[in-house]
Amino acid sequence: MSSLTERKARLIVHGDQPYNAEPPLDRLRASYRTPAEDFYVRTHGDLPDLDEATWRLTVDGGTGPALEVSLSDLRTRFPVAMVTATMQCAGNRRADMRAVAPVSGDPWDAGAIGTAEWTGVRLGDVLREAGVAERVGLHVAFESHDTVDGHPYGASIPLAKAMAPETVLAYAMNGEALLPEHGFPVRAVVPGFAGVRSPKWLRRLTVQDHPSDNPIQAGDYKLYPADVTAETADPANGHTIDTMPLNAAICEPARGAILKPGSNRIRGYAVSGDRTVVRVDVSGNGGWSWVQAELERDVAAPFAWTFWSTSLDLPPGEHELAVRAWDEAGQTQPALPDETWNHKGYLCACWHRVRVNIA
After folding, report:
1. DSSP character for 181?
2. Which residues make Cβ contacts (< 8 Å) with residue 297, sequence separation at least 6?
3. Which residues contact 194 (CB under 8 A, 6 or more apart)?
4. Domain Moybdenum cofactor oxidoreductase dimerisation: where (predicted)?
5. What gap in Å lies between CA 338 and CA 74, rounded to an integer?
6. For the chain, N or C: smaller number of CB within 10 Å?
7. CA–CA gap between residue 85 and residue 82 (Å, rounded)
8. How far apart are CA 68 and CA 87, in angstroms?
């Protein structure tokens, strides 16, 4: 296995403490399942150094005593579950909103996203083993080993989502043990939800009648109107970000690329949190006219992205490429980041635009 230093060298690093990084966009189109070393990294605190032999997960809030399981228990006591799913940071494409007006957070391009085959056990199976019955109004609160501003990282999801068959406790990524920066030895994977709801380095799960009161859940990852500022934001009035919106991005060619006149291949991804992408439009003139792209998806993976590609005949000069996706409900993306700008820079889902020169 390569070292963390070597893996960092492959990525665009936005910060070392906490460590946050994304791949160059062309790497995302190299394969449908993103290699672990090219998968974006989002952390809020330290990188825990955990020993799989001594690691334990405690599950409480069921009808009986708390359940404690080891990694060996997960591997031997529960059916293996595998899900191919896309994970995406709520701040993906924040750089586009930052171009409108200042926002907080790392300036992610469109690379804070990746798709992997996650192997582990269904979270619902573990919860049922702990005596948890599905009931309306309950939540599963996660607590992790990493520390953020003096507190353990924590987040929560509705119990119904925790019990859904696609939600897993993963110990492997693309057939290999999780890398330390991706949550070794065990992390949650909650397909369709923002990455913040898929905590790494798990320590405890608690079933309770309210969302987690951890600052990450209660105070952060809220969507506010454009007129709300950091000073006036009230988390009680912000919309908690769970399901991710329809989005699309151009991965090739890169911004500022110099291309030859004539036919040029344009490739990228499209994704939607809980709906199927049914169409992707690509423009070579900033959205004045469009062509429909060819789509590539894994029909057995409804929570994974859709790859798209097309060819555009581009004459000499500067061109603004643009892409927009459509979902099965007939919804598409806003044209400009101005339309959904917010001071946290969350959920940027406007048309993705890339300027290129044809020489």
Report:
1. G
2. 277, 304, 305, 306, 307
3. 88, 89, 90, 221, 241, 242, 243, 244
4. 240-357
5. 46
6. C
7. 10
8. 27
Return the SS3 of 347: coil
Q: For 72-90, give one letter per residue: b (16+ CB within 10 A) or e.
A: ebbeeebeebebbbbbbbb
Domains of the chain are 4-240 (3.90.420.10), 247-358 (2.60.40.650)
Residue-wise pLDDT for 295-341, tens only, equals 999 999 999 999 999 999 999 999 999 999 999 999 999 999 999 99
Angle of CA points 76, 81, 83, to nearest 5°:
155
CA 209 to chain centre: 26
Polymer length of the chain: 359
d(CA 237, CA 342): 14
Which pLDDT tens digit goes with each residue over 165-179?
999 999 999 999 999
Whether 53 has a pLDDT exceeding 80, the answer reads yes
3-state secondary structure of 265: strand
